[in-house]
Specification:
Helices cover about 75% and strands about 0% of the residues. By secondary structure, it is mainly alpha-helical. Helix 7 (about 135-155) packs parallel to helix 19 (about 390-400). The longest helix has 27 residues, at about 195-220. The protein starts with 18 loop residues before the first helix and ends in an 8-residue tail after the last helix.
């Protein structure tokens, strides 16, 4: 294979370049909905078909060069970073399960948190943790295994319970001062983080209160077994290590590595596993992430070909062609970052991609830069929170052993902030920044 680095795209914007995404969505989402079975079409197969199609329609390159361009997308540094997190998350989740840490944490939660507040409690926990650590992925890794264990013991729907954590995880992803999306949005728009936070907070807080109220209401009918649970306090330690280091602002990879070490220490000290069993658990956990890694690689490659063939440029050109006034400018900024997020499956990359253009639009039409930064961040989090091939959704579905599509209908918070973001544009809210 010719290993010469492929040059950046110089092609004209093209609607046809977006067709691989349509192939994927039709094969995976539409077919699954038609047959009413989310497991009939494996997501890996859907990405394989759409990837082959994306390579086939790429013009101006030899077959070897097309595959090289596809591989560059798969080897993108952000994709690779996500894969390392998946590997560590798999090792931690499996070793924590094998030493009894998940059961101990579930029992502790059921013992001390009233049954009618379990749903609201986990939503608040996801919001608080994600706000503190600035990452939705880290929040999903920390809480989904616990809430999945509670779902098994209480008989609650697994998809519904998982969606509580996924939704709450985007509260902090959207608002946290140390979130990548906040940093990208404020830097591209040239405003201070605290000012963007003030606007953003006013937009999403009503949605958070409504969703929290619904979970409190829904929790009243929750049936929690009344028996007393045995709590092995020492086995809760690995999760305490993960949460504590996350709150301290450690890198998510380091957080998971320390959690893995904690599972080994606790497992060996309590006699739950020996050293070779622990090694086996780590290996099983990492191997179990194989499908997730394959999906991530193929998504990165396919989306890179969409970009190379002019798909993203077409979207930008089409949306910026007819802007009329501040309201139209804000709608355009929201649509730009939303569609870019669909095409990149990464909200930070989507903001970086369209951020400079959004800044130009905001300047030309007099949109407050604090408002444009908030719109960029909010709309990107909405899309990232509901696409079935986003890292957060894939990770949550893997840890809960369910289909990503089965979670979507219960994602109340991402839908709530979308409604509020649209309201903020149409009703010119908050008035001070509109």
């Amino acid at each position: 294979m010719n290993k010469t680095k492929i040059t950046p795209n110089t092609k004209q914007p093209s609607l046809w370049a977006l067709s691989p995404l349509l192939v994927f969505l039709c094969l995976y989402l539409v077919v699954s909905l038609i047959v009413n079975d989310f497991y009939k079409v494996p997501i890996t197969v859907a990405f394989l078909v759409s990837s082959v199609y994306a390579i086939a329609i790429t013009k101006g390159l030899s077959l070897n060069e097309r595959v090289m361009q596809y591989s560059q997308g798969a080897a993108n540094k952000n994709v690779m970073l996500m894969i390392w997190i998946f590997v560590l998350a798999g090792a931690f989740a499996q070793s924590a399960k094998d030493i009894g840490a998940i059961d101990a944490t579930v029992n502790l939660t059921l013992q001390f948190l009233p049954g009618n507040l379990l749903l609201a409690g986990f939503f608040l926990a996801a919001c608080f943790i994600s706000l503190s650590i600035g990452t939705s992925v880290g929040t999903v890794v920390a809480l989904v295994p616990v809430i999945a264990g509670i779902a098994e013991k209480t008989g609650m729907d697994m998809s519904f319970m998982t969606a509580i954590v996924v939704g709450g995880a985007f509260f902090g992803d959207n608002l946290s001062f140390i979130s990548d999306t906040t940093i990208a949005a404020t830097r591209t728009q040239g405003c201070a983080m605290r000012d963007k936070f003030k606007v953003n907070f006013r937009i999403v807080l009503p949605a958070a209160f409504v969703v929290l109220g619904y979970y409190i209401y829904r929790g009243f009918g929750m049936n929690v077994p009344p028996e007393a649970y045995t709590i092995e306090w020492v086995k809760v330690l690995p999760y305490l290590v993960v949460l504590a280091t996350a709150f301290m602002g450690f890198n998510v990879a380091l957080v998971l590595l320390l959690g893995i070490i904690a599972t080994g220490v606790v497992g060996l000290c309590t006699g739950s596993i020996d050293i070779f069993d622990w090694f086996g658990s780590l290996g099983t956990g990492m191997s179990g992430m194989g499908e997730l890694i394959i999906i991530t690689l193929m998504a990165g490659g396919m989306l890179e070909l969409i970009r190379y063939n002019g798909g993203v440029d077409y979207i930008i050109q089409a949306l910026t062609r007819k802007i009329n006034g501040k309201k139209g400018a804000e709608m355009c900024i929201g649509a730009l970052v939303a569609i870019a997020n669909v095409c990149t499956a990464n909200n930070t990359i989507a903001i970086i991609t369209v951020g400079p253009l959004a800044n130009d639009i905001a300047t030309k039409y007099g949109v407050d830069k604090r408002k444009s930064a908030s719109i960029l961040d909010t709309f990107s989090c909405v899309i990232q929170g509901i696409i079935p091939y986003g890292a957060q959704m894939l990770m949550a579905a893997k840890l809960a052993s369910i289909s990503p599509l089965s979670i979507i209908e219960y994602l109340y918070y991402p839908i709530g902030i979308f409604i509020m973001a649209m309201f903020s544009i149409l009703a010119r809210w908050p008035k001070k920044y509109s």
